TrEMBL record:
Organism of provenance: Gymnodinialimonas phycosphaerae
Metabolic or biological pathway, per its Swiss-Prot or TrEMBL entry: Nitrogen metabolism; urea cycle; L-ornithine and urea from L-arginine: step 1/1
Keywords per UniProt: Arginine metabolism, Hydrolase, Manganese, Metal-binding
UniProt remark on cofactor binding: Binds 2 manganese ions per subunit.
A Pfam family per the record: Arginase
Superkingdom field: Bacteria
Substrates-to-products reaction catalysed: L-arginine + H2O = urea + L-ornithine
InterPro entries: Arginase, Ureohydrolase, Ureohydrolase_dom_sf, Ureohydrolase_Mn_BS
Family to which the UniProt record says this protein belongs: Belongs to the arginase family.
Name of the protein described by the UniProt record: Arginase
GO biological process, one term: arginine metabolic process
Cofactor: Mn(2+)
């Protein structure tokens, strides 16, 4: 039987506002495990991560918010991800804000290096999260995970050790961008990553943008980590996020991406991030994220019951 491992990350320190701590519980309440079991997966829920204790971490960037807390989460998640990546199961990290990817992405990159395989990352987000401590205007660390994973300079010792391996930006694809800070824009453009904003989706469609990236993963026998941020989606249908940006992906665009990922059989790990149930409308964002995850793991449009909302 196909294996999936759920791991909750009740983390909100990277986001700068309260609420994401409730994300893992919302996914469980919305029936994520049950939906995956209905698709004939063997699902193991490991419960919630607890952060490692970090009391003293040095940095010259005093505007970084909740730095010891974020470092504690990063160290714990890096260790969990490195371990889970070596098992015959697909881990789903139920967040929690996007700072959780400081640990999950770097853990999977390190495990891929151990295996001698290339690690690819698909970033579905309104924001590029490519800030460094120097370029970040807010100091919120949920805007920094990709820069950290790619080994950009200026970060404090989040792992308590050097990064074992760094993500090659040329193996990174960002889809759905519509809010990028000036400093991180320059870093992103210089990195060589594939970065597609909503205009590119409007002009070309998600299939034309995603297919070449998936082809590259398959061609090189790569591992694929997908990080899905709630704010990738149009906030009119997914309001439960603290960083809403109008003009996001539609219901069908988001489902098409999930269906293409399933058809590719390339997914090896998944982040579900930035769900803030405190901002939701009767749980509809949590249910939408569960529906998208079900599409990613093989639920077809023809399998859906008709319902009204």
């Amino acid at each position: 039987m196909k294996q999936i491992t759920l791991l909750g990350v009740p983390m909100e320190e990277g986001a700068g506002r309260r609420g994401c701590v409730m994300g893992p519980a919302a996914y469980r309440t919305a029936g994520l495990r049950e939906e995956l079991c209905a698709l004939e997966y063997d699902v193991d829920d490991l419960g919630d991560v607890t952060p490692s204790p970090v009391t003293d971490i040095a940095t010259g960037h005093t505007h970084l918010k909740y730095l010891p807390d974020v470092a504690g989460w990063t160290r714990a998640l890096h260790a969990h991800a490195h371990t889970l990546a070596q098992k015959d199961s697909i881990p789903i990290y139920m967040g929690g804000d996007h700072a959780l990817s400081l640990g999950t992405v770097t853990g999977h990159v390190a495990a891929a290096a151990d295996l001698g395989r290339p690690q690819y990352v698909l970033w579905l987000d309104a924001h590029s999260d490519f800030n460094t401590p120097q370029t970040s205007p807010s100091g919120n660390m949920h805007g920094m995970p990709l820069a950290f994973a790619c080994g950009l300079p200026g970060f404090p010792d989040l792992l308590g050790k050097p990064l074992p391996a760094t993500l090659d930006p040329k193996k990174l694809c960002l889809l759905g961008l519509r809010s990028v800070d000036g400093g991180e824009r320059a870093l992103l453009q210089a990195s060589g990553a594939r970065a597609h904003d909503m205009r590119a989706i409007d002009e070309r469609g998600v299939a034309a943008l995603l297919s070449p990236f998936l082809d590259a993963v398959a061609r090189t026998n790569g591992l694929l980590h997908v990080s899905l941020d709630v704010d990738f989606i149009e906030p009119d249908i997914a309001p439960a996020v603290g960083t809403t940006v109008p003009g996001g992906a539609t219901f069908r665009e988001a489902h098409l991406i999930m269906e293409m990922l399933h058809d590719s059989s390339l997914l090896t790990s998944l982040d579900l991030v930035e769900l803030n149930p405190f901002l939701d409308d009767r749980g509809r964002t949590a249910r939408l994220m569960v529906d998208l995850t079900a599409s990613l793991f093989g639920r077809r449009v023809l399998d859906r019951f008709t319902s009204s909302y």
